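[job 0412] stage=complex_fold ligand=iron/sulfur cluster status=START
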Amino acid sequence: MPAIYVHIPFCKQKCAYCDFNSYPGLDAAHGAYIDALVSEISAEAARFNRASTNTIYIGGGTPTLLAPEQIGRVLNVIKENFTVVSDAEISIEANPETITHEKLAALRDAGINRLSMGFQSLDDELLELLGRKHTAAQAVDAFRVARGAGFENISIDLIFGIPGQSLANWALTLEQAIALDPEHLSCYGLTIESGTALERAIDESAVSRPDEDLQADMLLYTMDSLYESGYEHYEISNYAKPGFACKHNLTYWDGGDYLGFGAGAHSKAGRARYSNVAEPAKYIESAGSDARIAESVEQSVADEMSEAMFLGLRKMDGVNPEEFHARFDQAIDSVFGEAIEDLVGVGLLVRNTNLRLTPKGILLGNEVFSRFV
Ligand code: SF4
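[job 0412] stage=complex_fold status=DONE, emitting structure tokens
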């Protein structure tokens, strides 16, 4: 059952830290882009023989910049061409400054049942440093508007380790977010991506580089605080009330298939991986044909096994050796025994029924994952 992802690459502005496939100033292209999505989805559906799906995720970019009717049209073409199960999780990413009661009520009517709200911070100075277009008060209002519009499954995205942010500041942001009682929180340590405005500001010494030790303290604080507030830590950066883990993202970490529609979207079908051209204008020109494919590869079994490890270990449940054996017909220790022994030896992994990250392993996740690549 593939997950379906739809990419909307439009934003009001480019945030200072962002290296996603997103573009400001393309309002005039919205209509043509929706037409292109409709033709790509219709063309792909024929290949996938009306496959069933239990999760649709509309991400970006800022999908809530579009009119609800445009989102509704995309959802309708998915429903016409795939079998969307009755309790499917249907998410959309939403930025606070783009939200109104009318828009969210229309999105609910169109079938969206989960909102992922990009707060990033609840401190106005840090929001400005990040180049966000909303204030903390707007974010809190937007959350209340979403509840008022009937959303019962809301996730809040937050970033910690922002230059100049103290542990006390992060603790306050987290406390304010928890007070809203969201079903899900994603908390990411800030990474400085190359080519971003934030990287340039750091290179020019206009902004200080995030402190890695402080970021580690913030992550440990986040884990404790959200645990005490009743959230399950189910993936390195993700926390959910029981029953509200994101089905869509779990498909990725569990190695499931996914179909990505839109500019720059990635797909996986068995061992095949392919991705669309990233630029919206090129995508619009080519969406209905294979000319939209920018890259296509067939993974080897070794690649699949590596991926199963570094994606599976992102989950706090870790990797189950029996499931690994059943999937690849090889014992996990015959493939990765040396790396596993080393990582258990230095306290980054622990072996019970499953192989999992320790708290130290969570802090040093990239070091763990690099051993399986
Ligand atoms: S709103 Fe999101 S996708 Fe758009 S520029 Fe900001 S971080 Fe990037």
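The first helix runs from residue 30 to 48.
[job 0412] exit 0
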